């Protein structure tokens, strides 16, 4: 019985909710900052694999995308096991680790499109739709982070961040999200192309996504207009005359 319920929940993936995706992405980011070395690499890779699996299920992605996600999961498990048992596999020059980063970047590039396609097909635009848009926006940051990591593992000279070195997964995630939001602290900068071109593309895509997709969803959902309506109604009620007709009489002056 329990197995049937779990299978039913997995097939009806809308029950998983878009909030799970946002939570997993946040946990992946925190894990990349807190854990280092082979254990950190293994944990981050497994978490990002879980994110992609949930996204593909929620978005009802096409079968070939599900198969690609399964292949990525198998490669991730191999890298994690080899990295924890045979340390050299976690080296940034490992072709197996590089292939995981490349495949992860490709899947993270497709995942937001699949998620938005499924979201826009919903019969109504509500809070869940807004959360889905936030999840897609966060996945864009993950896509560019894994793209930077893949470029850094393949193109080792010069180091991806130049004088700051090759960096690690935490550096790539940090740089990706400050670029996506056009914050740009300037402490990390790609030394050469194609990293520089990807950084410019991320900044443009991030701003266009906010002013088009997210803004449209917020506007169509009526979340802000509903709050504004209630605020206007309260202001109108406060300026209405009392039940006795007319406004309250001014208090009579006190005798000296």
Please explain how this structure is put together.
The structure is a single chain. This protein is mostly helical. It has one domain. The protein has nine helices and no strands. Helix 2 (18-34) packs parallel to helix 6 (127-154), helix 3 (37-58) runs antiparallel to helix 4 and helix 6 crosses helix 7 (169-180). The protein is globular, with a radius of gyration of 25 Å. It starts with a helix and ends in a 17-residue tail after the last helix.
- From the alpha carbons, calculate the radius of gyration and give it in angstroms: 25 Å
Number of domains: 1
Unreliable sequence segments: 1-13
What is the strand tally? 0
**Separation of the first and last Cα atoms:** 85 Å
Helix/strand structural class:
mainly alpha
3D shape: globular
Mean pLDDT: 79
Give a quick account of the main beta sheet: strands, pairing sense, barrel closure. none
Relative strand content: under 5%
What is the overall number of helices? 9
Helix percent reads over 70%
Order of helices and strands: HHHHHHHHH
Descriptive key words:
mainly alpha, 256 residues, 71% helix, single chain, 0% strand
